[in-house]
Structure formats: structure tokens, C-alpha cells
Amino acid sequence: MAPALRPRLLVAALLLGLVLPFLGKPVHVDDANFLVLARGAAADPWRPHALSVNWQGRTELAFDVLSNPPGIGWWLAPVAQAPVWAQHLAMLPWLLLAGWGAWSLGARFAGRPGAATLLVLGSPAGLLAAQALTPDLPLLALTLAGMAGLCAEGGPLARRWPWALLLGAASLFRYSGAVLIVVAALWPLLRHGRRGLSTAALLGTAAATPLLLLLAHDAHAYGRLHLLAMTGFQGVAETPRDWLRKLVASVAMLGGGVLLPVLCWARPQAALVGLVGGCLLGGFAASLSGQSGGAALATLAFASAGGAVLLAAVPPRAQVPTSDEDPRPVARWSAEELLLLAWAGLGLLFLLKLRFTATRYLLPFAPPLVLLALRQATPRTVQVAIPVTVGLAALLAVDDLGLARAQQALAARADALARAEGGPGLFAGHWGWQHHLEARGWRPLEEDAEIPRGVIFASSRAAWPQEPAESCLVPLDRLEAPGPWWLPRVHSWTGAANFHASMVSAAPPLETYAPWTLSADPYDVVMVHRGCRGQAPAPSAGEPVVPLEALLEQREREREAVRAQMEALDAEAREREAAARAAVEAARRGWEAGEGESEDTREEAGPQDR
After folding, report:
1. pLDDT in tens, 534-566
2. What 8-state DSSP symbol labels residue 178?
3. Where are the beta strands (DSSP E) in 15-165?
4. Predicted pLDDT at 571
5. Reported pTM
6. Which residues pair with 457 in a beta bridge?
7. Closest CA to 99 of 7, 234, 172, 189
8. How much is the pLDDT for 319?
9. Around Cβ 556, how many Cβ atoms within 10 Å?
10. Residue 83 burial (CB < 10 Å; 0-12/13-18/19+)?
11. Bridge partners for 338 per DSSP
12. CA distances from 408 to 86, 435, 467, 481 (A)
């Protein structure tokens, strides 16, 4: 084996070893809505958003509520109805492409290809994205590969337009990929100044081409632009409070789920300043959201970690001559450093426009921070950062698998209970919970709809359940999936942490900043009820619950009584109709008899009488 090939194979083997054991991971969190998009693409490849889905509580057109481009739907369409392990296998080519891109960028910008690959793809956000059926892994792969080709050394930049085209294809999977169009156009300007204007226009146009083609497709397929529709859909959190929350959540998720605060200590002064700044931000955000105890401590810790990472990643400016004619030194960043700073900074600004923050949203804009940190890190800090990052990612992946399996198991238990009571019913909640119940014939509840009498209703606590209208409900069972206390948890009520969003489902929703925490919360709790509209109020604790069979028998007796009453009314109507017909017949006969007598009288009369 060639010496240069051995480290690449070792890194690839490690990454595959972290992903392959999770091929059987059940449909989880947002996997569910992307599989809906995949089924839409399988049914109508030209119009994948032209189907209905209940993802926000009400059945709506997917075009109006699924906020991502159709790229992942097109990719998964061939396996939309396949077993889940086959769907996960279909995502592996993206992992290999992402690995190649991260390796090339690590060699180009930091001289540490293996470390860059493991710190990007082996991070908690990278590993969970590689185990999901979401657009995040394709987005990351196209970003890394496109930037690697665009920034490769040697040859004129103008010939790199195919790589810019590949980079722009990221916007087919998430609209955040549109930021990379600007990054592609910036690179020639940073390298050559005004002399790079024509090349910047060429690369920017190439990077924008996939998005422009998608917009033309939408105009033809739907008569309107999905990107514009989603601009309004996402722009619902634009107050200063919302912006502050999203900023702190992004910083905290960066320090706890993407780039851990290990490499940053190569620049201890900058890291300490960032730590203090992050701590102040975290304290203000925790107070703003009413956090206390362990939840507030988690927010402070992760915001501090993210602040340290951000400030330490910004490189010190080197002293360079002002120009060939003026040798006086001036502090400047290099073109490579400016590119990485712009890549990360523009991406983080874009994320502030979204309606909420999730750790995986940071993925396409985290690699430049990793590369900047690696450029300054000592070998010792790199040796510590890799096992700490990959080890935490593996633990969080195990916990996330537990949450996915818990919702699948709870769906199966609720279905078994419902079938024992008469059949599947209505459910509230989304994520994998929704996917598993719909596969068993259940229907999602429409927000504020009443639960009909006798219908089984199951509601998940964790998976953002929609609220029914005020209904009479008889409790049947409480189903709980306990969570392990010894794992770092990706979702917690008591710890106010959520890897997949910046809120936790509650009444009202619980605002969060931490991507994970330590807690003993159950994975999920499901309440199963039966509708009892028109009956006595639900029995209090200790009172017997009326079986469903008795309710059905009562309903059948009511139907029989109504049927007998209708039959009696019909008989009475028939009798009246017969009497009316007899009266009409008698009147007709009398009239005919009277007409005959008049004609005889007219014949006997004389002409003068006529």
C-alpha cells in the first residue's frame, strides 16, 4: 500500500465505522418530511412539492410548508418506499464526496487533511447529519467538494467554473447554499483585486446557475417561486429578541456541537476574551428565556465555549509591506484567511434570517472555522481535539438513535392499544412519531379539531403535538420511553437542550440554547385517550373506564331506535297517502256521474231552452 494512501483509508474506515452501525436507524425528526418530499418526487418528478402534508398542525400544500428545495426529494425518490437501511445506504455517496472535499481543503489551507476531515465530519453535527435522511449531508458534501476544487492550487481561476457550478448545486438542497454563490465570486477578487472582476463574474454566474434553473423550474411547474414563498415562511422571527436568541443559540451550538473548545486554546488570550463575551451573552439569554438551575448553567457553558471558539479562530493579521513602492508594514489578513472569514461570516449572518436555529444548520459554514483553528493549533491540541470531538459525537449518536427507536416503539405500542380498542385513530405530533403512525393507518389531527366519540387519540409530548379543540376525552394509558442517565442527551426538558432546534415542545414552548445536556428525562411520553363527546364527563382517577365495546353497543341501540322511528313515520305517511288517493278517486267518480246527468237534461230541452 502506498504510504500516501494509508492515512486516507484509515480516516475513511473510521468515518464508515461511525455511520454503518446506524444504517437501521428509524426515521427520525425531519427525516419524515423529506421522505414525504421523496414520495412526491417519485409520483411526479417535475412537481415534487405538489402534495399535501400535515407538518405544522394543519394539512397544507407541501409547497407552502416544506421549506427546502426539492434536491433531497429527487435524490431519495428511487428509494422512497424502500426499507430504511436502503435509504441510509443511498446517502453514503455524499459522505464519500464530503470526505474527499474536507481532505483536500485541510491539505490546501491547514496542511492537516486528516484532522480537518475528522473534525468536520466526525463532529457531532457532521456525524448525525451522516446518519440522517435530510439535505444536510448533500449540502455539506457539495460545499466541501466545490470549495476544494475552486481553491485548488495551480492553473487560472477562470478554468474553475465547473467547480463553481458544483458548489452552486448546494442550493438545490438547502437555500443556505445561495451564500456560496457570493463566496465563489469573492475568491478571484481577494486573489487579484480589480484584475479578477471578469473571473469573479464568471465564477459567480456558474455558481448561480443551479439556483436560477431551479427558479425557472418552479415558475413553470407551480406558477410561483418556492424560494420567495419560503422567504415569507421563514421570516416570522425578526424582532430584536428573536435575533438575539438565534445569535446566542448559534454560538452555543457551534461550541457544543460543531467545533469544540479545544483547538482554540492555541490562542489563549483570544479564547479567554471570547469565553467572557460568550458567558455574558449566555447569561443575558438565559435570563431573557427565564432559565434557572441546570438549564441556565448549560446555556452559559455552551455560549462561553462558542465565544471562545469564534474569537480564537479569527487569525492575527500579519505585518506585510503596504506596496512595492512603500515598504512600510501594515497589518493584513491573507487572501486565504479573508476567504475563510467571509465564508463563515456570511453563512452565520444568513442563519439569523431563519425562523429558528438548529445545530445542523451550521454545518456548511463550520469548515472555514475548523480550517482557521487548525492553521494556528499546536500538534498537541490537535491530538486532543480529535478523540474528544469524535468521542462526544459517538455518544450523542447513540442517544439520538435511542430517541429515534423510542418514538418508533411508542408508535407501535399506541397502535397495539388502539387496535385492541377497535382500530387506529388520530394522533398529534410530528417527527418520526408521525411517520410510524401514518405507516400504520393513523391520521394526523387537524389543529383545533374535535376528537369524535369513540375515536382513539394518541399525543406525543416531544414531537410538537398539535392541540385539539376542547373535547371530552377518556384516558386509556400513559406510555413512556425512559432515557439513560449516563449518556449526553440531545433532547431534554429539565436541561433545556435540543440538538435539532432552539426550542423544546411544551405549553408554552421551552426556549433552549444548549445542543445537549446531562439529564434523566424520558425520551418521550405518549398519552392515549378515547373521544367521549356526548357522554358523561371523563371519569376521575379510580373510576372504571367504559369499554369501547359498550360504547359501540350503545351507539347501535341508538341507531336501531332511530331506524324504528323512521319506519313508523314511513308507515304513517303511506297510510295518509292511501287515504288521500281514495278521496281523490271518490271525488272523480262523483264528478263523472254529475256530467252524465247534465247531458241527458240538455237533450230533452227545446231549442228555445238551449
Report:
1. 543 444 444 344 444 454 455 556 556 656 666
2. G
3. 52-54, 59-61
4. 74
5. 0.84
6. 426, 529
7. 7
8. 62
9. 10
10. exposed
11. none
12. 18, 9, 21, 10
